[in-house]
Specification:
By secondary structure, this protein is mainly beta. It has one helix and six strands; from the N terminus they run βββαβββ.
């Protein structure tokens, strides 16, 4: 266990928006979506499924300590 107090934090870039296929639930980024249809649905059934939903970010934030290199993640609590 390190004795670092993590006083010099750097905010790391957030993840890109992700898309999820409404049929098979494959999750990928817009850059990973090579065509305009789901590659998993096309491979398994031959159907060109193009119905995606944009996943909402959980507002997860990541920091890196400049002194020790530790990655610190912050996730807000989910409302019950």
């Amino acid at each position: 266990m390190t004795e670092c107090r993590h006083t010099q934090l750097v905010l790391l870039p957030q993840n890109r928006k992700r898309l999820r296929c409404r049929r098979c639930h494959l999750t990928l980024t817009a850059e990973e979506l090579a065509g305009d249809y789901c590659p998993e649905c096309f491979e398994t059934s031959g159907a060109r499924q193009a119905d995606f939903e944009v996943l909402e970010s959980l507002e997860e934030v990541r920091y890196r300590c400049e002194q020790c290199g530790a990655i610190i993640e912050y996730r807000p609590r989910e409302n019950a």
